[in-house]
Amino acid sequence: MRSEIEERRKNLEEMTKRLRERMTRVKHKIVVMSGKGGVGKSTFTANLALAFSNKGYRTGILDADIHGPSIPKILGVRGRSMRAGPNGALPVNGPKEIKIVSMDFLLTSDETPVIWRGPLKDAVIRQFLSEIDWGELDLLLVDLPPGTGDEPLSVMQQIPGIDGVLLITVPSEVSQLVVRRAVGFVEKMGVPILGIVENMSGFVCPKCGEVTAVFGSGGGKKISDELGLPFLGSIPLDPRISEDSDEGRPFILERSGTPAANAFARLVEVIEEKLKEKG
Question: Is 255:276 a contact under the CB 8 Å cutoff?
Fold first, then answer.
């Protein structure tokens, strides 16, 4: 029994060492978190990755939503598999050479549920970080599931040197309430917060350009001011984002020049400044 425990301890130490070695090859690590579902966080993450790639960043996405992985669908790479390489499993290459790792690549069918408790989810996230050959990256975006449970806890504890967390909200007061809890969680974990982004900030009619505040307006800026956090910007609601995501078409590549695509480009510039401030 003692020898078995010792063996497990050694394996964990070796995995942790590999994880840290791999993460030293990633220049910036940013976690995307909402605390609440239904705010378009995964679609936001996918398009933000594309916006960074457009500027020449070598970008990766860790889809840390174990029960509801959706990044592969949004980026049109569902059905592909991670394959073995000389230094570990290789991520799937998405549009603009974005490296993607997701539980979705390991599921056998659309009907296959992931019925796991916390320890198993913690273990698979550790494997994604330590056994995957991410290579040299300028930026790794981690897409978290809603809430402050197992996956967010594992990511915050396991990834060394996180540059910061992007908190995604929509203008509604319900979303703002949950963001407060997410802020408290991140602060307790001792991880810096880059700022708050308001998604679905206003519906821009693709025909006439009129803006309609479907979910209200100004909620992101309001919560930022109240909590003393930077407000990084807003992304307008464009129905074509959902349509393109359902079809696996990268929105900002298909719809360059639209208000939403331009908003992502501006957000990249704001985040770049935040990263420079951190040194």
Answer: no
